Amino acid sequence: MAKNIGKYGALLATIMAVAPFCAAQAQDAIKIGFVGGFTGYLAPYDQPTLQGIELAVEQINKAGGIDGKQIELISRDMRSDTAQAAVTAQEVVDQGVQVMIAPCDVDPAVATGQITQAAQIPTIAACASTPILPGMVGDYMFANYTADNLQATALADYALEQGYKNALVLLSRDTPYTEMLPRYFATVFEKKGGTVAATLEFKMGQQDFSAEVTKIKELSPAPDVVMTAAYEPDFPAFIRQLRSAGITAPVLGSDGIDSPTTLELGEVAEGVVFSNAGYPTPGSALEKFNADFKAHFGEEPSAIFTATGYDVIKVVEAAVKATGGNLEGPALRDAIDNLENVAVATGSITYKGMNRVPLRVVALNKVQGGQKVHVANVTPNGADVPPAQ
Amino acid sequence: MAISAYIVPQATRSAIVMALALAVPCALIGLFGSNPMITTVTNFLIMLIAVSALGLFSGNSGILSFGHCAFMALGAQISATLTIPPALKKTAFPLLADPILQSQFGLVMALLASVLIVGLIAYLIGLAICRLNGSSATIATLGLLIIVESLIVAAQGFTRGNQAVYGIPKLATWPVALAFAIGTIVIARLYRDSRVGLLLRAARENHAAAQSIGIDIPAQRQVAWVASAMLSALAGALLAHFLTVFSAKQFYFDLAFAIIVMQVVGGLSSVAGSVAGAVLVTAAIEMLRRLENGIDFGLFQVPQIFGLTQIGLCLIVLAILYTRREGLMGFAEIDRFLPFLRKREELATEAAAPTQARPTGTLTLEKVSKAYGGLLAVAEVDLELRVGEVLGLIGPNGSGKTTLLGCIAGTHAPSGGRVRIDDIDITGHPAHEVARQGIGRTFQNIRLFAHMTAAENVMAALTQRWPQLGHAELVRRSRHLLDELKIADLAEREAGTLAYGQQRRLEIARALALEPRFLLLDEPAAGMNESETADLLGILGWLVKDRGLGLLVVDHDMQLIMRLCDRIAVLNKGQLIALGSAAEVQASRAVREAYLGRRHAEVIT
């Protein structure tokens, strides 16, 4: 045991000895911190995000950096724990980062943001989709991912375009995503002349949707469209039971069902339309990103979060260019806040006039014969997006 | 009520040492450490409050609880609601009543409110949960956690539902957390050795034995349950004021498991264990997460490996539990390793042993029956036991002896008939109330409070019987009783480590602490050799002659029964078939038939 203590002591001594050199070497670099949940429940989101970020950093550095400045990435695991996020964020801030990337869930993102807000370091939540997040922290906090209200607006616009008048909304209060996204949809749909025939609630993991399906069947007139943000295992159970009850109304879903499971559902999922953060149409930036990703990591991107992670660095790049290399917090913050049409992997991003929740492309996709088929890329009108709640 | 029965000197010294051992390093880090270090220490202190709070209930009652996480959630909700600025509150909690919406309280008021409200809620829930035993109680606490989380999510408008509560003032700074952590471990440590802690630990060690000395187990659990719930609420509220943002899922299974792991690694049944567990887990995480980020050794580099912290922590926990099954501290407090904490209490000048009037009364059984479905285990038995006499109860295996004993002691409810002491009807009373009426008992397989010292075994019974006695008096009387049974030199030994004969003596000493009128002895000589049996006979004779107790002795050792008993009752198939002196019973044909079968009985006749 004593021997082991000696060994760890040596390790710690080494770290302490090496750390100052690392700091010194990076005087002239742009330091970006990423406090992420690389283990725990956030790992499926923050790990792919990190891959995308690493790819972007490497590409930019290889091309000579941003206006000659190399990017140094400091990524630290907060183990999907809010308290640890605060500790880790403070440590990363103490290493002198100029931009912070926050984890994928609201609580740890806020904990991170409170540290960086106080230190006046612009912070971007890579994939948290709750649009109220920036407002919860302050003027240095930005969202990056397709916000729930943006996605809902795209879906509502699509529904109205298709001539659906009468919608049924299915939500679950178990998470903000499964609750608020359908609520935002209902808000836009009604504001633009549609009617929400009924709002039904389910419990995540309930498996048996017979009560909900019966209620839908009894509706008169029958709904033109069914909208939900349910995902696995609720969505497959729901749509099977819906279709076997003979209800043929089209179903709209959100990016939660952008997974192979949905494509493998067969006949019942045929025609389901869902939104996500981007579709790699031929010649698109996303197609190029996917190819670059495969060349770099030797595998296909596991989730769209790889591309949205890449986007964050492209946003930082655009902001640093806009300030002319000024890395002061207030200057960078204002630069990000005024960005317009930044070309990123998933399309383009605009922060100007959006209260730090970006306007970006929403892709609409359709399940057809077990394949994901692209329907359209839409960028909703900023004025239509309902206020965050 | 003697305050010294609650604040025991040794526990006080132990608590002060622990508080200092905690306060000094934490204060040094607080004053001179970097921001991340201070944040880590503050988080550690809040977790320590949560772990000690859980330990106060689980450690002393032996019931693992997931429900304390629910109390943390409620504490956090209430405190957050009271401290969030009114402007933000209007959008966050639109359904709240106006007076709450428009007011904003400081930390002290908010903590006080959350602790008191949660205490009240815990009291009501405890009425149900504290009646359950073992794993059913644990499952009930699991249900409590799930229900509370669901209610918080469903009560959107009053709460934030599934969304994050934010804008909570950051009031839980390190001095605040340190002060409350010290307060919590002092309370937990004092509670453990106080008379209520002693009674609950007795119940943890052996349910039936605790009842046999009159302990109302649900009532004792209730005390610990409410106290620990209030401390959990404090921990939850502080966590909210430390994180400044939380959602319902923050206080769910992950946190419940994290707290339980700390408690189990440290030692489930010890306050020092709570501290050790929290320190060890925090220190391990801090060390491992630094290794995780990759190290450059010059010659070779260890890359950044995410997950090393979790894996390493799991391995450390496994290694500790593999080598020390009861956690780092087991059942021990720091007192065991620091002899100066244990210095003998100044005992009150040796007064004369409490003079006891010789007991009076008669225990009467009238047509007592016990049926299990169609089987009549005890059938209309009439018996009388007077003080100062020894009544033997014999019969072949399965004749209903132990069942009859249970009907008297209150562990079995008779299906018919009455049990009285003089004119007081005790039929079907719960075991602890029967004990309080003056009926002590020992068990067929000795039931001691194994992880408590011999002295504590007796003191538990004493303090149960005489709640007003102070600690010094409890110690003195317990020594006196142990001395009477010739085991005074073993007072500080753990009961479970005593030899068999010593354990039997301790069991009798514990029963005597109640000053019973009657003593029920279930096979007291089982498994004893000849000299041990002779020894026992001496003790039992003394109980009757000098103390004037009435004994009811069940045993298979005929020699012992014949020598000891004034009268002998014989049961067969639940029926009383003979009652009389040894000679009369020996002469009874029915008795011989019962033991030997009809044909053999005839041959002998």
Task: Characterise the protein shown here.
The complex is a heterodimer of chains A (389) and B (605). With 389 residues, chain A is an alpha/beta fold. Chain A has 2 domains: 193 residues, Response regulator (Rossmann fold); 150 residues, Rossmann fold (3-Layer(aba) Sandwich). Helix content of chain A is 44%, strand content 19%. Chain A contains 13 helices and 15 strands. Chain A has a 7-stranded mixed beta sheet with strand order 7-6-8-9-10-14-15, with helices on one face. Chain A has a 5-stranded parallel beta sheet with strand order 2-1-3-4-5, sandwiched between helices. Chain A has a 3-stranded antiparallel beta sheet with strand order 11-12-13, with helices on one face. In chain A, helix 6 packs across helix 7 and helix 12 packs across helix 13. Chain A starts with a helix and ends in an 11-residue tail after the last strand. Chain B has 24 helices and 14 strands. Chain B folds into 2 domains: 249 residues, no CATH class; 243 residues, P-loop containing nucleotide triphosphate hydrolases (Rossmann fold). In chain B, the strands form 4 sheets. Chain B has a 6-stranded mixed beta sheet with strand order 10-11-12-7-13-14, sandwiched between helices. A 4-stranded antiparallel beta sheet of chain B has the order 6-5-8-9, with helices on one face. Chain B has a two-stranded antiparallel sheet with strand order 1-2. The longest helix of chain B is centred in the N-terminal third of the chain and has 27 residues. In chain B, helix 20 links the parallel strand 11 and strand 12. In chain B, 56% of the residues lie in helices and 12% in strands. Chain B is an alpha/beta fold and 605 residues long. Classes of the chains: A alpha/beta (389), B alpha/beta (605). Chains A and B meet through helix 1, strand 2, helix 3 and helix 4 of A and helix 2, helix 11, strand 2, helix 13 and strand 3 of B. Chain A: It comes from Dongia mobilis. Chain A: Belongs to the leucine-binding protein family. Chain A: This is Amino acid/amide ABC transporter substrate-binding protein (HAAT family). Chain A: Keywords: Amino-acid transport, Signal, Transport.
